[in-house]
Every structure is written in structure tokens, then in C-alpha cells.
């Protein structure tokens, strides 16, 4: 079995190395070794989005992810009706910050009540401040998540603002996975 040792590699390198290997083969398997939970979660998400089977084992402070890719000759996912909204700030619009904060809270509340929901909400840069404990928008984002909207936050951004430990909803991802998500979406909207 092919081994991909990603110990000590920073995000998003483990998921990129995994993707490159599986893109290079029609079918087969490999074991990926990572030393942190975020890398493990990102690789498992990659497997889920591509229809690969995965099995995770925790071994001596490492995660071993065994992945099997089978050639079924079918398209795994239909992305024709997906919408990704990228939230790049904790304020909506430019001008007055107080107004921008109020508008963002109002927008996310209205979105959570809407009949037409996006597939994904991606939070990056200052937008990650909205998905943490004590965010004035947290209730609306939790409701969106409960209604099936995937919530993804940039791990580098959470680290930059030193709020990763305060994340209250969704999953931490990396720029490679975020770019892939945006590229696969039928519509991408940036706030």
C-alpha cells in the first residue's frame, strides 16, 4: 500500500498531497499519516466529496487515514445547483463600521429565514469573527447550519485573529479546500 507521510506539514499541504496522489491514479489505495486533527478532517472531507472510502485510526499521536478509490465510471456529485457565499468581513459594505455590523447581522438573519439557502457559507479574513462564541450573528449561522448549510472557516484566519479555540459552528478548513469548494460551486457570491 502507498504511504503518504504528512507529519509536520502545514495546512493545506497534507490535503494537496493526498489529492495529487489520488488524481494520478484511476483506482487504488493509500494510507496518509498526519499529526493533527485539522489535517485529518480536511482529508476525510476530500474523501467524502470525491466518493472515496476512508478509515481513520489514531496511532501514537498520529492519524492514519486509509483511503480507497474505486473507479465506478460515475460522477460523484452534482454541482449544478450549488451556491457558495464567501463572507470575508464581519461587516457588510463599506463606509460606517457600526452600520456595516448591523447590516451583516440583518443579512445573516434574513438568509437564515430564506427559502433559498446557499449550499455553503465560507468565512475568511475578518468574517471568521462571526462564527465564534459571543458573535452577534451566531444564532443565525447556527440556524443556517441546522438547515443544512455547510459552514466552513479558514484555519489560517482563525489562527491570525487567535480565535480558533472559540469556534462555535462549522468546520475549520484550508485555502486549497476552500478554492476547490468555490470552483465546484455553480454560483459563488462574495460579501
UniProtKB/TrEMBL annotation:
Pfam families (alphabetical): DsrE (PF02635), TusA (PF01206)
Domain UPF0033: 4-28
Coiled-coil residue spans: none
Gene3D superfamilies, sorted: TusA-like domain
PROSITE patterns: UPF0033
PANTHER family: SULFUR CARRIER PROTEIN YEDF-RELATED (PTHR33279:SF6)
Family per similarity comment: Belongs to the sulfur carrier protein TusA family.
Protein name, per record: Selenium metabolism protein YedF
Species, as recorded: Clostridium frigidicarnis
Amino acid at each position: 500500500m502507498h504511504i503518504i507521510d504528512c507529519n509536520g506539514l502545514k495546512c493545506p499541504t497534507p490535503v494537496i498531497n493526498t489529492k495529487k496522489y489520488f488524481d494520478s491514479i484511476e483506482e487504488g489505495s493509500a494510507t496518509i499519516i498526519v499529526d493533527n486533527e485539522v489535517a485529518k478532517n480536511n482529508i476525510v472531507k476530500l474523501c467524502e466529496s470525491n466518493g472515496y472510502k476512508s478509515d481513520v485510526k489514531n496511532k501514537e499521536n498520529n492519524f492514519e487515514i486509509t483511503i480507497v478509490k474505486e473507479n465506478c465510471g460515475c460522477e460523484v456529485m452534482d454541482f449544478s445547483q450549488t451556491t457558495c457565499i464567501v463572507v470575508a468581513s464581519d461587516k457588510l459594505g463599506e463606509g460606517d463600521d457600526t452600520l456595516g455590523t448591523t447590516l451583516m447581522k440583518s443579512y445573516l438573519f434574513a438568509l437564515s429565514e430564506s427559502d433559498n439557502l446557499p449550499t455553503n457559507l465560507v468565512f475568511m479574513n475578518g468574517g471568521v469573527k462571526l462564527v465564534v462564541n459571543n458573535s452577534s450573528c451566531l444564532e443565525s449561522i447556527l440556524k443556517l447550519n441546522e438547515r443544512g448549510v455547510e459552514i466552513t472557516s479558514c484555519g489560517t484566519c482563525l489562527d491570525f485573529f487567535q480565535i480558533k479555540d472559540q469556534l462555535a459552528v462549522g468546520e475549520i478548513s484550508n485555502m486549497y479546500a476552500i478554492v476547490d469548494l468555490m470552483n465546484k460551486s455553480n454560483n459563488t457570491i462574495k460579501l
